[in-house]
Amino acid sequence: MRYPGHLSSYGINYGDRENDLKKIYQGTPDADSLLQKYKIEYIVATPEEEYYLSQSNLKLNYDYLKKFPVIAEVGKYKLYKVKS
Length: 84
Fold this sequence. Notes:
Blueprint: H1 4-9, H2 15-26, H3 31-37, E1 42-45, H4 47-54, H5 62-65, E2 70-74, E3 77-81
Antiparallel strand pairs: 1-3, 2-3
Helix pairs in contact: 2-3
């Protein structure tokens, strides 16, 4: 999603999406259904996502992400494949 203001400039109400994105990165019980809802094929985990979550006192749940294969990795940057 990145910067929510970008979505807002296109008239997209980003509030629900932003909350759902946080749930996915936290690996909440409904994270899998949210991945399906938004038809997400890949998840990017970088220091930027960690920082984004930390602004809400949340943490990126790497244990949840372990269930997805890493298809690219450079330093602290990982790309996970959600759909096969």
